[in-house]
Design goal:
By secondary structure, the chain is an alpha/beta fold. The protein has two domains: 198 residues, Formyl transferase, N-terminal domain (Rossmann fold), CATH 3.40.50.170; 70 residues, Methionyl-tRNA Fmet Formyltransferase, Chain A, domain 2, CATH 3.10.25.10. It contains seven helices and eleven strands. The longest helix has 24 residues. The chain is elongated, with a radius of gyration of 21 Å.
Length: 288
């Protein structure tokens, strides 16, 4: 396949749509429809946050652009068929896409994943990178198959630094220019008919959702592990934080330091971490 491609974009917010759209146009291709995932699972009710995002998406839509809000994967396949697509570009879509969707565009579906695959396959690569104390992440564009994050790689780029106090907005400012570059490279390869390079499954690691018990600070972990646990929850947003028992009560831990600081000293397996920001919390539910 060569020449201009008709492309649909599936992602989760106005900034992400704008960045993907600009990269496609810069590479000489035509975005013709946007797709937004309005629920965590196909066939379920619209998520409360998705309803708010849809309002912002409609305000930011380019003139003449359609916004698809599919209820099921099957209805998505039916809707996409009408656009005579060459390619679907996915970045942060919650659903596993079935063959009916993958086979609709002439050149298939490509996915943008926030790790250097095959490292951190799964829905939470950035969270695991922060949890593990990684200093940086990367982006991979790969052909999508019916499994998660296993398809052949088209383009990769690393070197996206993770700040000590990493935030979603701050990280997005680092990701955005890299996203445009790596997607542009991948689009050129798709237009040339490149199949991509197979991943080495022996090098794969999984980045699934956090285990329920990870919402409680475990002092048998190292100070660095506890500190990175707090950093990870802080990245997720202000409503998220692990809890810890201190004295006769429980605290929601919002920020920690590995160096001596004004706050509560918490002893861990190999030394202390200092809680420098916290609020009172209820005890976690007893798990039986």
């Amino acid at each position: 396949m060569s020449g201009r491609m008709r492309v649909a974009l599936a992602t989760f917010g106005p900034d992400e749509f704008e960045t993907l759209h600009a990269a496609c146009e810069a590479a000489g291709h035509d975005p013709v429809a946007y797709v937004h995932c309005r629920s965590m699972k196909p066939g379920s009710r619209t998520d409360a946050r998705a309803a708010e995002v849809v309002g912002r998406l409609t305000e930011a839509l380019p003139a003449g652009m359609d916004l698809l809000l599919p209820g099921t994967a099957e209805s998505l396949a039916d809707a996409l068929a009408g656009y005579r697509l060459d390619l679907l570009v996915v970045y942060g879509f919650n659903w596993r896409l079935p063959a009916a969707v993958l086979n609709t565009p002439r050149a298939g579906v490509i996915n943008i994943h926030s790790s250097l695959l095959p490292k951190y396959r799964g829905p939470a690569p950035v969270l695991w990178a922060i949890r593990n104390g990684d200093s940086e992440i990367g982006l991979t564009v790969h052909r999508m198959d019916e499994r998660f994050d296993t398809g052949p790689i088209l383009a990769q780029q690393g070197g996206i630094l993770l700040d000590e106090d990493v935030t979603q907005q701050g990280l997005w400012q680092r990701i955005r220019p890299v996203l445009g570059e790596v997607l542009g490279t991948a689009l050129d390869l798709v237009a040339q008919g490149s199949p991509g390079v197979a991943q080495d499954d022996a090098e794969a690691s999984h980045a699934g959702f956090m285990e329920p018990g990870f919402s409680v600070v475990d002092r048998s972990r190292t100070a660095a592990q506890v500190h990175n646990q707090v950093r990870m929850f802080r990245f997720m947003g202000p409503r998220h934080a692990p809890v810890v028992e201190v004295g006769d009560g429980w605290l929601k831990v919002l920020r920690t330091r590995l160096e001596p600081a004004e706050g509560i000293r918490l002893e861990c397996a190999d030394g202390p971490v200092w809680i420098v920001e916290s609020t009172p919390a209820d005890p976690p539910p007893i798990r039986r």
